[in-house]
């Protein structure tokens, strides 16, 4: 079913792309910006059927550089589902080219005839010039439509239309912002009241910081699983690990110790399927993921207690990768007015960017966020990570017990009495980030408003406690520079000095 808000957005895209009775302006390239699991598929299917029904196009290609088989299967099923509902006569006009179908050795690239709508799903992915989507456009002489170097009249003459679809199209947004093209437009999908996304998880303080799954964090991992190991209400815990073999073994060891069922789900071993998550487990169950459940895949959420994206040991994920991961998979629609009963753990550096993503989604230029795929830091850039953290020292702490520290906090900072307190032991590896920030007096963490992190460091030499508080003040993000250097040369959207650009008004 295509819902009212999807039809409204689809109609706006249709009118923007093909013009209306009141405006003959044609914009052959439209970016559909829709948050994770908000309903982008139903929206672009509405555009497809309106374009075919009104004979604006004769052929539709749905393409993606994503090679995940489960997502490919989902899109293939959508073809049958939507054509059964809106007209089976349209099925022969729709071609799905997914992953290796789009471009691979020995597989000829499809020719795009005139009068065709191309829907590029998950357009933030595989957008380098070495990837399949670019090879597809290049083979058909359409590579210039991506960065605006193809003349509008040539596009109109061939009657080619392109709908890019993504929740995290950061490089394309930067390209549109740096060098606006007069026939590239952005249309946002607005959610209905049944949608619960990143705003919900932030507001309900369900966005938590993850840690590296390694030998140094076994106590943290055990404490995490213990929190959700409820026999009276057994649910799933989804855990994505980086160092697959070693980390999986550690997770299995903790599960065995706590008598928790443990499954694996990856490209080689799957002792449980996504469809199995529809059924409530009979015992608390951990599912260890690797290379699965990214970008667009719908995950049953009714029986999930928490999702955990393990922090990589040596590097940080890109913002779009983090948003599209397990956080994105537990966004979506529910008839429960209270939303999803799920806690989300993501690596600490991503928390700030998630906040910015939610705040900037409705801006005219969209959420301009870096680091992300196909983006790099500019030499002239300023950090765009602002913080709401304030730090105060607790004077003369005597003992590290919660009771003792809470008494001192009440005596020294009575204004914090109504705050939610979270104890952080800086002696554990997972909390060393806070210690380094305190020592440098530079904070990159986001702390929920009216929350106080009690950061204690008790050693033989010294006894220290700092209070990090979220001050509740909304801050304007520091804008990124308008340097073209920020977009990598290999990105298909990178603007050039083409005369077909118009400047900012």
Structural commentary:
- With 505 residues, the protein is of the alpha/beta class.
- It contains 14 helices and 18 strands.
- The chain has helices at residues 4-18, 40-53, 69-86, 132-139, 144-147, 152-158, 170-178, 198-203, 218-227, 244-258, 319-329, 348-360, 402-412, 432-440, and strands at 29-33, 59-64, 94-98, 116-121, 160-166, 184-188, 195-196, 207-209, 236-240, 261-265, 285-289, 304-309, 332-333, 343-346, 389-393, 420-425, 451-458, 463-470.
- A six-stranded parallel β-sheet has the order 3-2-4-5-1-6. A six-stranded parallel β-sheet has the order 8-14-12-9-11-10, sandwiched between helices.
- α1 packs across α2 and α9 packs across α10 (244-258).
- Mean pLDDT is 88; it is low at 379-385, 478-482 and 498-505.
How many beta-strand runs? 18
Which regions are unreliable across 5 or more consecutive residues at pLDDT < 50? 379-385, 478-482, 498-505
Mean pLDDT comes to 88
Helix content: 25-40%
> Biggest sheet, open or closed, and with what strands and sense?
6 strands, parallel
Instruction: Record the strand order, biggest sheet.
Output: 3-2-4-5-1-6
**Distance from first to last alpha carbon:** 40 Å
Radius of gyration (CA) equals 25 Å
Tags for this model:
18 strands, alpha/beta, 505 residues, globular, 18% strand, 6-stranded parallel beta sheet
Strand and helix layout:
Elements: H1 4-18, E1 29-33, H2 40-53, E2 59-64, H3 69-86, E3 94-98, E4 116-121, H4 132-139, H5 144-147, H6 152-158, E5 160-166, H7 170-178, E6 184-188, E7 195-196, H8 198-203, E8 207-209, H9 218-227, E9 236-240, H10 244-258, E10 261-265, E11 285-289, E12 304-309, H11 319-329, E13 332-333, E14 343-346, H12 348-360, E15 389-393, H13 402-412, E16 420-425, H14 432-440, E17 451-458, E18 463-470
Helix pairs in contact: 1-2, 9-10
């Amino acid at each position: 079913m295509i819902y009212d808000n999807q039809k409204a957005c689809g109609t706006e895209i249709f009118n923007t792309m093909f013009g209306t009775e009141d405006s003959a302006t044609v914009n052959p390239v439209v970016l559909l910006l829709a948050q994770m699991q908000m309903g982008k598929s139903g929206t672009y299917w509405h555009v497809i059927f309106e374009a075919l029904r009104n004979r604006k196009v004769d052929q539709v290609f749905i393409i993606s550089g994503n090679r995940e088989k489960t997502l490919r299967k989902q899109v293939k099923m959508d073809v049958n589902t939507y054509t059964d509902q809106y007209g089976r006569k349209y099925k022969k006009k729709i071609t799905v080219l997914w992953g290796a179908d789009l471009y691979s050795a020995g597989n000829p690239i499809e020719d795009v005839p005139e009068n065709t709508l191309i829907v590029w799903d998950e357009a933030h992915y595989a957008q380098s010039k070495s990837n399949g989507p670019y090879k597809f456009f290049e083979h058909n002489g359409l590579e210039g439509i991506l960065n605006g170097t193809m003349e509008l009249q040539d596009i109109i003459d061939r009657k080619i239309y392109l709908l890019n679809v993504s929740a995290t199209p950061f490089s394309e947004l930067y390209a549109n912002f740096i060098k606006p093209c007069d026939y590239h437009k952005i249309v946002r999908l607005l959610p209905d009241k049944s949608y619960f996304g990143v705003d919900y998880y932030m507001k309900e303080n369900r966005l938590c910081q993850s840690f590296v799954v390694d030998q140094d964090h076994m106590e943290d991992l055990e404490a995490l699983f213990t929190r959700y190991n409820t026999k009276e209400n057994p649910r799933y815990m989804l855990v994505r690990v980086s160092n697959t073999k070693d980390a999986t073994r550690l997770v299995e060891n903790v599960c065995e110790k706590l008598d928790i069922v443990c499954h694996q789900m990856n490209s080689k071993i799957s002792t449980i399927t996504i469809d199995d998550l529809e059924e409530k487990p009979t015992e608390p169950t951990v599912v260890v993921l690797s290379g699965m459940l990214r970008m667009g895949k719908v995950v049953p959420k009714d029986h999930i207690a928490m999702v955990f994206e393990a922090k990589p040991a040596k590097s940080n994920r890109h913002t779009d990768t983090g948003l599209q991961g397990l956080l994105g998979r537990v966004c979506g629609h529910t008839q429960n007015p209270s939303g999803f009963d799920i806690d989300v753990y993501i690596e600490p550096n991503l928390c700030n960017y998630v906040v910015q993503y939610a705040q900037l989604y409705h801006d005219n230029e969209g959420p301009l966020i870096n680091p992300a795929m196909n983006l790099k830091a500019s030499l002239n850039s300023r950090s765009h990570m602002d913080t709401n953290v304030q730090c105060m020292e607790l004077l003369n702490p005597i003992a590290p017990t919660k009771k003792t520290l809470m008494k001192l906090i009440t005596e020294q900072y009575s204004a914090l009495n109504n705050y939610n307190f979270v104890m952080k032991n800086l002696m554990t590896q997972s909390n060393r980030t806070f210690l380094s920030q305190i020592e440098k007096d530079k904070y990159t963490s986001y702390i929920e408003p009216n929350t106080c992190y009690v950061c204690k460091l008790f050693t033989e030499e010294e006894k220290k406690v700092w209070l990090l508080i979220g001050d509740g003040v909304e801050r304007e993000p520091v804008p990124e520079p308008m340097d073209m250097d920020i977009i990598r040369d290999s990105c298909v959207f990178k603007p050039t000095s083409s005369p077909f650009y118009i400047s900012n008004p």
